[in-house]
Amino acid sequence: MILGSINPAVLMAALMVAATPILLAAIGELVVEKAGVLNLGVEGMMIMGACLGFIVAVNTGSPVLGFIGAAFAGMALSLLFALLTQALMTNQVASGLALTLFGLGLTALLGQKYVGITPPRTPKLDLGPLSEIPFLGRAFFSHDIVIYLTIVLVAAVWWFLKYSRAGMILRAVGENHDAAHALGYHVKRVRTLAIMFGGACAGLGGAYLSLIRVPQWTEGMTVGAGWIALALVVFASWRPWRALAGAYLFGGVVVLQLNLQAAGVKIPVEYLSMSPYLITIAVLVFISSGKARGSSNAPGSLNRPFHASS
Amino acid sequence: MKKLLTAAALSVTMAIPAVADTTKVGFIYIGPVGDFGWTAGHDRARAEMAEHFGDAVETTIVENVDYGADAERVMTQMAISGTDVIFAASFGYGPDVNVVAGRFPNVAFQHATGYIQDHPNVSLYDARFYEGRAVLGHIAGKMTETNTIGYIASYPIPAVIAGINSAYLHAKAVNPDVQFRIIWTYSWFDPALEADAAETLIEQGADVIMQHTDSTAAVRVAEDAGVMAFGQASDMTQFGPNAHLSAIVDRWAPYYINRVQAVIDGTWEAQNSWLGFADGIIEMAPWNDRIPAELQEEADGLIAAIVAGEYHPFTGPINKQDGTPWLAEGETAPDVDLATMNFYVEGITAELPN
């Protein structure tokens, strides 16, 4: 056992990188679900972002444009979902699953010519003296800008849902769409916007994988990240900061278990490799189970179709 | 009614050879054909085989097929739609292949890297990857400066364990101080996880990364970190021109052509083939220029000795990890030991998952 070879600062830094793609997707899906829509197509929108973001970044040479392209790609796919579920009133679960399959298939086709190409580098944000601080510098202040913007996004979503008028309307639509409709709010418009936001976030999460974390384009490269994001939203009981905590916890345990394995710690590897899932679920269930907090925080109209006539 | 059914059944069985001008060949893959690794290797061979036979064969592929119910469904579908021979190209399809083979005795099944053969229409085929791993181990042992080699492993199955042992023994032989750090991902294909694993290994001092997982992520990470790596199943040079030292490249095509020819001729019989360098089933990707000429010659010599049958990568004396003797001086490993290998050899410090 060579625990000394594990550097906590590097662990912390790697954790943030590992957590960011799922956090981006989760925060988007959280808003979608808060509006009362269950979009199971997160995986499909993520891979769409990973693929299109990669293609745009390679062709323009700009990772920033790549991320923007990825957001639009995820949004485009989510609009398809919005069209199906909001305009055509199809079943949300089935449409979401179809979206995932469609995204995986379409990107396998679109990305064919882009396998084996190196994307342009996303520079690390230069934080000057901050990154020189021992431990903290390496752990927190030597990252690309997307990691910080993701945290800002979580804060913004939290503020939006809790304090802004638009956020309250969104929540009202999610809690009870009939009441919101009776009050004169455009349920479908709100939901469509939320779905688009979710798509854009999932696309960004995918692009983070293909442009920064891996970084390359490989068919099917999200391998379930979208599903983890979906689970995270539920276990975080639809609260933005808990989603962040859950994502960091998940990323942290993933990175930690890899380090423990490499260091040759005498814990059976089977337990180590399932630990990210078990620990994240256990912790989030535990913090969400308090009586005062209300264990079921699910939006009241989640996954219920809305039609103005009903 | 009964008569009619029998007649129908008869006419169906009799109609098959008459109608079957083209031989239908099905492939099921565990990953995407674009993985640039294991599945890509099989699909390369499929394409070569299809080209060889031209219009005489028709190939079908299904990618990303999970083990279990999914695989059973896909193979059943293939069998029902008149496929003559099905290649199931992953270890974990074993039980599913045998279930479906029992139901369709007239369809030939070819299962890669498996060990279950319950029916006379199930053939097994595998490559002696440990021969290639011996060469990688030799090169890694000589090239490492930190004396630490990182190994990204998928599942603890005999083929993977034998690969680790073979690489370790040959690295150790040329560099007594060498250490192996091993990470199991419990997945064949997860680029993000493999990238994280590679980063972790590099962070912990490894300067040569070996992988027994299928994505190209680790080679890419090694390139960025300025360390060395070996690709898996396909030549992965383009993902890390400086880092990529070589790779064991799978060449299933000669075998596929041979087996499909047997189906066409009606001479197909179940076999259990385990092929290596000598059969041309595996070969090494071109050596990276950073490998010194002398070492390249040594590696070529090692391959030549294996091809000639003069050298077996598992030649005693070799002890198991716990110190109990496995092979005596000069003894070579029997195939059955390699095909069921469930122990590390002496010197590896990590613990083997069950």
Question: Summarize this, please?
Answer:
The complex is a heterodimer of chains A (310) and B (354). With 310 residues, chain A is mainly α.
Could you outline the blueprint of secondary structure elements for this entry?
The complex is a heterodimer of chains A (about 300) and B (about 350).
Chain A: H1 8-34, H2 42-60, H3 63-87, H4 92-110, H5 136-140, H6 145-163, H7 165-175, H8 177-182, H9 187-213, H10 225-235, H11 240-262, H12 269-288
Helix pairs in contact in A: 1-6, 1-9, 1-10, 1-11, 2-3, 2-4, 2-9, 2-10, 3-4, 3-9, 6-7, 7-9, 10-11, 11-12
Chain B: H1 2-19, E1 23-28, H2 38-53, E2 57-62, H3 69-80, E3 85-88, H4 94-103, E4 108-112, E5 122-127, H5 129-143, E6 148-153, H6 158-174, E7 179-184, H7 191-203, E8 208-211, H8 217-225, E9 228-233, E10 244-250, H9 253-265, E11 272-275, E12 282-284, H10 293-307, E13 318-319, E14 325-327, H11 335-339
Parallel strand pairs in B: 1-2, 1-3, 3-4, 4-5, 5-11, 6-7, 6-8, 8-9, 9-10
Antiparallel strand pairs in B: 10-12, 13-14
